[in-house]
Design brief:
elongated
């Protein structure tokens, strides 16, 4: 378990430095926001500032500031909630989708480089085990 903990600390440090999104022209916090909105859209779940705050593990005022910044950057837009007229929902704009895809491709390139020399079975086993590990952390 010590080796797993050490490896996870190294991963967290790299994320803290935003190493996986460092080449992006957009603020890394907006990349995290766009990733979260995209995940909710893909899952067909409504995404509000409140749900975004929970997804990003920030308080609601911070989430509101991030959303305002993302709207100003053209990554997301607010739309009226058809079930509750007092609330607005968030969705990615075309530019937001393009940004998410650009960052996703950059991440995949970095991961592929890190796993160069791994067999297809090793990559598949790693993906399965990592997914199980993350699912257990969430559960």
């Amino acid at each position: 378990m010590v080796a797993v903990e050490r490896a996870m600390v190294r991963v967290r440090r790299r994320q803290t430095r935003r190493a996986l999104a460092s080449e992006a022209a957009v603020d890394p916090t907006l990349t995290a926001l766009a990733d979260a909105v995209e995940g909710e859209q893909q899952a067909a779940r409504p995404c509000s500032v409140t749900s975004l705050a929970e997804l990003l593990s920030v308080d609601q005022p911070r989430a509101s500031r991030l959303v305002a910044k993302a709207v100003a950057a053209g990554l997301v837009r607010r739309i009226a909630d058809q079930d509750d007229g007092r609330r607005s929902l968030l969705e990615l704009t075309e530019a937001g989708w393009a940004h998410v895809e650009e960052v996703r491709l950059r991440r995949q390139e970095r991961f592929a480089a890190a796993m160069r020399g791994w067999s297809a079975k090793e990559r598949a086993d790693f993906a399965e085990l990592l997914t199980r590990f993350v699912d257990a952390l969430d559960g």
